[in-house]
Amino acid sequence: MKRGHVYTLFFMTILTAVLVFALAAAYEAFKPSITTNKLLQEQRAVLYALGIDDDLSDEEVRTRYAESVQPGAVGGITEAYGQPVLAHMEGGNAIAYAVPFEGSGLWGSLRGYLGITADLTETRGLVFTYQNETPGLGGRIDESWFKEQFRNLPIAAGVELAYGANPEYKIDAVTGATQTSSAVMRTINKSLSEIVFPKEVK
Amino acid sequence: MVNEKTSAIIKRNLLSENQVLRAILGICSSLAVTNTMRNSLVMGLGVAFVTGLSSLTLSAMRNIIPHRVRMLVQTLVIAAYVIFVDLFLQAFLPDISKQLGPYVGLIITNCIIMGRAEAYAQQNPPLPAALDGLFAGLGYTMVLLGISFIREVLGFGTLFGMNVNFIRFETWTIMIMPPAAFFIIGGMIWFMSARAAGKAAKAK
Predict the structure, then answer these.
(1) What is the pLDDT of residues B75-102, one digit of tens each?
(2) Strand partners, A101
(3) CA B51, CA B135: separation in Å to the nearest integer?
(4) Distance between CA B188 and CA A89 in Å, rounded?
(5) CA B23 → CA A55, A88, B44, B138, B190, distances in Å?
(6) What is the three-class DSSP state of A97?
(7) CA–CA distance from A188 to each of A17, A82, A109, B12 (Å)?
(8) ipTM, 2 decimals?
(9) Chain B interface includes A131 (CB < 8 A)
(10) Structural domain spans, chain B
(11) Out of A23, A41, A136, whose CB is closest to B83?
(12) Taken in order B84, B86, B87, B89, is the CA torsion positive or negative?
């Protein structure tokens, strides 16, 4: 059957409209549960970075987050990369902070939180809330063996964290994902130097 | 091509014309996601689901799709299903969605889906096309599981995350990395080609 350009154009327009409409409808229908899930994941991530997630159920995550996490400030900075700095409160005092970080990985952005103690001497933990690295390679930064390496590392002004065997700690990069591993380290160090230990303005 | 038996469609897609091992399609994801069996299983099922539904849809529309833009239409339909799967996982299976993350989007680029749309759904009625797509995807799943079985056992000493390393052998780091899949797939393709060649020789 012979068909002209007009038919082709008409067909594509209708098809696109139908599919877009169907997807938009699906998104609207799923939106409430997607939003709830995202919020929960974010809260769980913050608890993980602060080292207090302890395999909690969804409900326990909500409760613990409400009980012990509040907006906080590190050296007067309350917000970074559009995310609030969060504080782990215990008995009315902040004992640790979750500092947001953001940077570019190999394929896309890296976003997450770095947990640090309130006296700014040690890390509490590292968590990613968004990463788009190669599955099975760079994507393995989201596996617990990698993230767990970032617990209780010494931090100080002007000192960068690094892979390999360091005097006080040892961090392994992801094999086969050098670019992503370096990007993670760069991003964390940037967050440390810009937010946690900003250079004094003279 | 018309009136192919259901059993023939199934057998063809799982074995004699397995998309990964005989048509050498979907190799990229076979290398990347096969380091653990769980990733392989979910990726495989995702592909099977999308291939089945997109073949069904495209076959149902096969007489009204303008021939010149058929590939555009295929991509559009496939992308719509993949986005739907992604939304569905985000809404109802957030844990799996998080673990898979970018894998889901990668389904769009899986050549098997478009391959089946081009090679089969275009010329066949919706029901056989859906079956063909579904089993092409399951054939892919099967191969992925085979590869990841070898890789996960030797590389991590686990199966679906459960420890099976009873004799405490030293795990093979290379099995975790993509080159391992490269060798294993190579071996499987060799085996399947030899089998096909043997059959062809017998037929003569």
Answers:
(1) 999 999 999 988 988 888 887 777 676 6
(2) A112
(3) 9
(4) 56
(5) 44, 55, 17, 15, 13
(6) strand
(7) 43, 16, 13, 51
(8) 0.77
(9) yes
(10) 6-148
(11) A23
(12) positive
Under 8 Å between Cβ of A88 and A65: no
Q: How far is B53 from chain A (nearest CA, A)?
A: 14
How many residues are present in chain A? 202
Residue type, B79: A
Instruction: Supply A191's token pair.
Output: 């967050």
Q: Rounded to 5 degrees, what angle do the CA atoms B30, B110, B160 make?
A: 40
CB atoms within 10 A of CB A176: 17
Angstrom distance (rounded) from CA A177 to CA B169: 26
Burial class from Cβ neighbours inside 10 Å (0-12, 13-18, 19+) for residue B9 reads buried
Which tens digits make up the pLDDT trace of A101-145? 999 999 889 999 999 998 889 999 999 998 888 767 788 898 889
Give the chain B residue whose CA is nearest to the CA of A25. B84
Q: What is the pTM of this model?
A: 0.75
Residue A79, amino acid: E
Backbone angles phi, psi at A97, to 5 degrees: -125, 150
Question: What distance in Å separates the CA atoms of residue B4 and residue B124, rounded to the nearest whole number?
Answer: 10
Ordered alpha helix ranges (H), chain A: 5-49, 58-68, 144-148, 178-191
Chain A, window 140-199: residues with a beta carbon less than 8 angstroms from a chain B beta carbon: 142, 175-176
